[in-house]
């Protein structure tokens, strides 16, 4: 048969045709890749554990997709009808994109919708092109994750039966709200329940006493 029997086989054939690499060399490069990946997954495992326990230790927001493609970060206006940019692009589901930033990498990454498949894979893997620091060459919607954050979020969505990005975002917003009874405002100038008086608290009293002639 002259046709590829899987996407992986097609990618291997394309790589061999372009570079002339042998099967043995591919195996050696694959071993090196997985060794490097194992050492780099510690940070991703931290994020994974936090996600599984319901504590999303990351930032998440929706931005205008058209502005994002142009290098701008535009969130919705107060009425959530248009983006906040001067162009005022319509704020609809198909015109916005989700961005996620983890504390480990401190970089905004786009999160694409969960791949539509009849049977979800046992685990999501990183795209080989992205893992090697290149741009994804797949024509269409690549079903491999394009970042560690995307891989973890897809895994979370699959394990919790979440198909909609809006639903995921609402869950994250609820997780960011302080618990009941917790005072979000810091207790300024208080210690052990007692008010701490600063020297500046008496400044106006001292000045008024001197100007009126009363002893201090």
TrEMBL record:
Keywords of the record, alphabetical order, are: Metal-binding, Zinc, Zinc-finger
Extract the ranges annotated as region (Disordered).
174-216
Q: Give, as residue ranges, the zinc fingers classified C3H1-type.
A: 121-149
Its GO biological process annotations read: miRNA processing
Return the InterPro entries for the record.
Answer: ZC3H7A/B (IPR039691), Znf_CCCH (IPR000571), Znf_CCCH_sf (IPR036855)
Q: Which SUPFAM superfamilies match?
A: CCCH zinc finger
Q: Polar residues composition bias: which ranges?
A: 206-216
Q: What is this protein called?
A: C3H1-type domain-containing protein
Tell me the ranges covered by the C3H1-type domain, including all copies.
Answer: 121-149
Q: Does the keyword Metal-binding apply?
A: yes
Q: Does the keyword Metal-binding apply?
A: yes
What is a GO molecular function of this protein?
Answer: miRNA binding
């Amino acid at each position: 048969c002259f046709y590829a029997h899987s996407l992986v086989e097609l990618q291997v054939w394309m790589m061999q045709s372009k570079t002339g690499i042998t099967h043995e060399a591919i195996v050696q490069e694959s071993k090196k890749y997985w060794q490097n990946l194992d050492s780099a997954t510690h940070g991703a495992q931290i994020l994974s554990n936090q996600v599984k326990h319901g504590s999303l230790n990351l930032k998440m927001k929706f931005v205008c997709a058209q502005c994002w493609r142009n290098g701008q970060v535009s969130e919705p206006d107060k009425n959530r009808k248009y983006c906040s940019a001067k162009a005022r692009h319509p704020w609809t589901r198909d015109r916005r994109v989700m961005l996620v930033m983890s504390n480990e990498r401190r970089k905004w990454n786009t999160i694409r919708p969960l791949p539509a498949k009849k049977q979800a894979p046992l685990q999501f893997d990183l795209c080989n092109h992205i893992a090697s620091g290149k741009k994804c060459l797949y024509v269409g919607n690549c079903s491999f994750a394009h970042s560690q954050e995307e891989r973890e979020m897809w895994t979370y969505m699959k394990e919790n039966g979440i198909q909609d990005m809006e639903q995921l975002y609402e869950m994250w917003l609820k997780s960011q709200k302080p618990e009941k009874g917790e005072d979000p405002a810091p207790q300024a100038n208080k210690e052990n329940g007692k008010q701490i008086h600063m020297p500046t608290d008496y400044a106006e009293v001292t000045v008024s006493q001197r100007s009126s002639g009363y002893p201090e």
